[in-house]
């Protein structure tokens, strides 16, 4: 089939998105590439973590994943058929520098060279993320994100990669979701490297932000002037379960760690005073040097938003104790079930919360262009006897969240694009292969790709550059 794949009849009566709005899909290297020992790739912390019994569901690993390393040409052809205007992928640091520094693995860079050329040849804009959690194990052995030196090594890696691809890739993201790297990786231990030290997690968060700043400077030194740099954060739209003062404090604490710990230093050159005060019992913040904040606040051209659902909190009557938590200094916070429909991840579905977040970012950080770099839902999808995957829940989810985007734009938010998570079913970190986020179904034993109903629906939206009025309420005129 040539041109965008379509499902159903024509979209009669549409509410268009702004001219130049970018339509895309996202993936990450460890989740889809496989080929972990091919062509000189070094080990990453996720190779190590997944190899520890009990860390990942069913003992799954990313050794094969969706086999994108061998099927990249097929996957790009699929993107073209769906009508994507952009594809956001991550570069595997251990493919480029197996030891995390020094020697550059030309065969690893060659893979991304071929991928970028194929994307451009099909009219698809490549959007590169430099770090999506696959830290070279050699750097972890030297201290990982707990070590300040890792930030400098990241800047060197950024310069090498942008030097090789920057003549064809014009949009670069330094880090994906540093909150997850810091707090799931070092406080709760749910992600690699699996540490459970809240003080280490806060230090790692700072070094990740320093890596972002140094990386952004390295990119600027190498890339053409017209290239864009960005950072992608996973935001929480935090709501209180009641109007009490204690619950308001719970909202403040979670918002501080999830959102402001990252936005304030990057966009305003300062750490939130309340977060530093909240965590004073865990660390004295001596890892922050006088010159660091100016580096972290190196200007960016876009702010990437990864968003999946709202967070409801209340004050806890008795402070939590025992199990490791990704929320340092939040022992007094209780996370509540908002009573909404959920995805297979158990995450609440609420497009209105995305609208609220976009308007908040527009209000709090005016002049900062925004891009939805991840938004999507996991469901338990199966291929029926006719070879179709009917994922009505995902279609409804995407419709609701794209309507929220359109409404936020109508109310002034400078939203430049939307990338669905994810193009392909993949290795979903500690959940292994038990959760499917893709708009394209992957049969893992054979690698067969089957576009789901959501892929056909999204294809039609992209083709018309609009949501049908019947599907997006009054957002066209509100």
TrEMBL record:
Keyword set for this entry? Answer: Carbohydrate metabolism, Cellulose degradation, Glycosidase, Hydrolase, Polysaccharide degradation
One Pfam entry for this protein is: Glyco_hydro_1
Its domain of life reads Bacteria
> Is Coiled coil there in the keyword field?
no
What EC number(s) does this enzyme carry?
3.2.1.21
Q: List the catalysed reactions.
A: Hydrolysis of terminal, non-reducing beta-D-glucosyl residues with release of beta-D-glucose
Family membership noted in the UniProt record? Belongs to the glycosyl hydrolase 1 family.
Q: What is this protein called?
A: Beta-glucosidase
Native organism taxonomy: Bacteria, Bacillati, Actinomycetota, Actinomycetes, Micromonosporales
């Amino acid at each position: 089939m040539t041109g965008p794949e379509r499902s159903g009849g024509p979209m009669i009566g549409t509410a268009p998105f702004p001219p130049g709005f970018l339509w895309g899909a996202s993936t990450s290297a460890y989740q889809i590439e496989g080929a972990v020992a091919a062509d000189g790739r070094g080990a990453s912390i996720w190779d190590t973590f997944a190899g520890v019994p009990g860390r990942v569901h069913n003992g799954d690993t990313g050794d094969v994943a969706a086999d994108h390393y061998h099927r990249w040409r097929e996957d790009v052809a699929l993107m073209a058929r769906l009508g994507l205007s952009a594809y956001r992928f991550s570069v595997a640091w251990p493919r480029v520098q197996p030891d995390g520094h020094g020697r550059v693995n030309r065969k690893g860079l060659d893979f991304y060279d071929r991928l970028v050329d194929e994307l451009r040849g099909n009219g698809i804009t490549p959007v590169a993320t430099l770090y999506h959690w696959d830290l070279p194990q050699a750097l972890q052995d030297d201290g990982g994100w707990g070590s300040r030196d890792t930030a400098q090594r990241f800047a060197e890696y950024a310069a090498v990669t942008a030097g090789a691809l920057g003549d064809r890739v014009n949009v670069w993201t330094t880090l994906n979701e540093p909150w997850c790297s810091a707090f799931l990786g070092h406080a709760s231990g749910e992600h690699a490297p699996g540490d459970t030290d809240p003080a280490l997690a806060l230090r790692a968060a700072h070094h990740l932000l320093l890596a972002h700043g140094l990386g952004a400077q390295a990119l600027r030194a190498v890339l053409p002037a017209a290239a864009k740099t960005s950072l992608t954060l996973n935001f929480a739209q935090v709501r209180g379960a009641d109007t009490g003062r204690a619950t308001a404090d719970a909202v403040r604490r979670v918002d501080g760690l999830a959102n402001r710990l990252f936005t304030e230093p990057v966009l305003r050159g300062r750490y939130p005073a309340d977060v530093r005060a909240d965590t004073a019992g865990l660390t004295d913040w001596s890892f922050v040097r006088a010159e660091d904040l100016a580096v972290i606040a190196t200007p960016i051209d876009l702010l990437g938003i990864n968003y999946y659902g709202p967070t409801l909190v209340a004050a806890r009557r008795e402070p939590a104790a025992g199990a490791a938590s990704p929320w340092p200094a939040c022992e007094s916070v209780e996370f509540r079930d908002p009573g909404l429909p959920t995805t297979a991840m158990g995450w609440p579905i609420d497009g209105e919360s995305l609208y609220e977040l976009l308007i908040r970012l527009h209000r709090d950080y005016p002049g900062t262009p925004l891009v939805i770099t991840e938004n999507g839902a996991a469901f338990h999808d199966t291929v029926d006897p006719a070879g179709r995957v009917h994922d009505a829940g995902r279609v409804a989810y995407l419709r609701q969240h794209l309507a929220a985007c359109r409404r936020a734009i109508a109310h002034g938010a400078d939203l430049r694009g939307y990338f669905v998570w994810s193009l392909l079913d993949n290795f979903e970190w500690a959940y292994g292969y038990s959760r499917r986020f893709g708009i394209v179904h992957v049969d893992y034993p054979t690698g067969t790709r089957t576009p789901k109903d959501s892929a056909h629906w999204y294809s039609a939206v992209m083709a018309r550059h609009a949501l049908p009025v019947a599907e997006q309420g009054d957002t066209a005129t509100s």
